[in-house]
């Protein structure tokens, strides 16, 4: 496994990595676009399909299929909306890609536009990434000047514009239809599907919504071929993958690996996070951003691929690995995450808007030591009345931290009720009750 | 425990003060006119977030008059604008301090002491989250995941970042901002890190 050679973030520590000069001269920058423009658009879609590239945003849907579904016979313009609203707790891979390798994304956007017949790509970047946006805008200017964007790209007759669109602080804008709503200048709230964005998306025109990392993989597929890409990982989980490791580990960061790599290697491997911080014991891992179920010590030998993690009872999601040591109280963890989901719920569907608030209040009461045993059943009941009853996956995501902690650590919840206090107060938590819960 | 409808959610309507009359200065007007060209001519509304950022940049926060001005620019109703302003967390409808300290409070940062960072900042500044100091220098806000979890705890100050702010350093951090302004921030630059 050590022979793996990074391709997405190999040069991120080079000081000039974000410049066009570096990208073209030191890597094979924009060669993918040159090659793509000699192919038929449909051939590119076929190549992406053959590579087995799956969306890196969270759902893992095959990108080639998504592009194929984009309506062909229509007089309307088509669009690519690049989802750079990276807000899932524990996820920061697109941040690194855009900050240090922005031209790869621009090249991916241009190839994507050519493949589906679009002329404009909007990169929807979250408002908090202002410093990243500046880098991205500068890179786009460079690309225009060098003729990789704009009219008649490289003499091929193909026109493509890439624009950055800054969001303003909304987790929900990461959902594809909510992202489109926000791009149209409205509140970021999801739409009823169908119709899917491939048929009626941005301005009711056919739209492909792709994650940053997904689009960054496209130039590599065009350049190196779909077989090369597929061979990098297990079956149906090909290609390079960025893993975001955070929490109680010695060396948190973004690591590129194949999806053969196990969770244990990622946490304890010398090339990766190098094990637990301060000599403490491993307790649990959230393997795919805060909205997926927890995995335990016994699951650590699972390869970190979409399919293997799913078989182990969780999801790879956005590959945001949050690692927790034995100082973490699981009631507190659920409360912390429900504070997030309660705050970020867009308010459109009642079960999620109201249910999230109820769950948070119940968890607060338990954490304060004022809970009762029957509250545990109430947590189940409220959670199960959110799951599957909302327009988008946010509702399920909000209920998951509660259900997964209850399923794996019910004894901790019971201990809170029995002893009337938090049984695992860690030194890194707030000292004053007022600050701990509000 | 209160089982009434949620006391808090972001869809709640917050009415803005009308404030002083407002219009873009020529520089911001030019920026807006340039930005709106990115979208199809019949889709001016797409520029609304950008238009609101310009208002906030010009007067520090967004007043009712600012919203009306944006409505004229976009050619939509003022209610449409207020609908958007009240939804997104990065728009302020009340005056804020010169430095807005946005402390990330979500899991990865919390595991490394973000709750303690807020406590220390709160104590140092003598305000609770959501408040502004009397001298108008600092506003303290708790925010949700900022997307730099490997460099926790993270604080966003206006549009700048400061990373790996240990609770013990929080008090000193405030003094540093007072002394050095933007120079006090680590920024968000991966390449300067030596691993």
What's the CATH first level of the largest domain in chain B? Answer: Mainly Alpha
Question: What integer is the average pLDDT of chain A?
Answer: 95
How many strands in all of chain A? 8
Shape of chain B: elongated
Helix content of chain A: 40-55%
Helix content of chain B: 25-40%
Strand content of chain B: 5-15%
Number of strands of chain B: 4
The main pleated sheet of chain B reads as: 4 strands, mixed
The fold-level CATH name of the largest domain in chain B is: Arc Repressor Mutant, subunit A
- Which sequence of strands runs across the widest sheet of chain A? 3-2-1-4
Spatial strand order of the main sheet of chain B:
2-1-3-4
CATH architecture name of the largest domain in chain B: Orthogonal Bundle
- In the CATH hierarchy, what is the architecture of the largest domain in chain A at level 2? 3-Layer(aba) Sandwich
> Which oligomeric form is depicted?
heterodimer
Q: What is the top-level CATH class of the largest domain in chain A? A: Alpha Beta
